[in-house]
Amino acid sequence: MRNISRRINNVEKLLSLGQHENQIQLLPPIISGAPTNPKGRNFEELGPVKTWITYREQLQAQKKANAEFLKDNPNSFGKVIFINLNVEKEYQARATKSNQKQLKGEKSG
Question: Measured between alpha carbons, how far is residue 2 from residues 13, 14, 53, 81 in Å?
Fold first, then answer.
């Protein structure tokens, strides 16, 4: 009798009975396009891509969209995240961000 109960316990562990809420969350792959450099600006001076403002904005937006997709389709994988890198847009985003910081400094001063 002891062997049967041990076998049942082993089978229950393998089947993970009673643990229906444990779902494996696989992260979708992130694909970044090569930085486009239309006016000859050097993208290396912008630093690592993960620090780019436009990269983070696109990543956050697509992660949010994937979360919404997974709410409706819980048993599927998230969609692949495509990020388009553009040097000119990154320079514009950084200029806008620095202008906003300057305006905040002038208002508080």
Answer: 17, 19, 62, 52
Measured between alpha carbons, how far is residue 50 from residues 15, 47, 85, 88 in Å? Answer: 40, 8, 11, 16
For 19-56, write each residue's pLDDT tens digit.
555 555 566 677 877 777 756 667 778 888 888 999 99
- Per-residue DSSP letters for 75-102? TSPPPPEEE--BHHHHHHHHHHHHHHHH
Go through 22-36 and write b for each residue having 16 or more CB atoms within 10 A of its CB, e for each that does not: eeeeeeeeeebeebe
- For residue 105, the Cα-to-chain-centroid distance in whole angstroms is 32
Return the structure tokens found at 92. 């514009």
For tokens 């937006």, the residue is 61
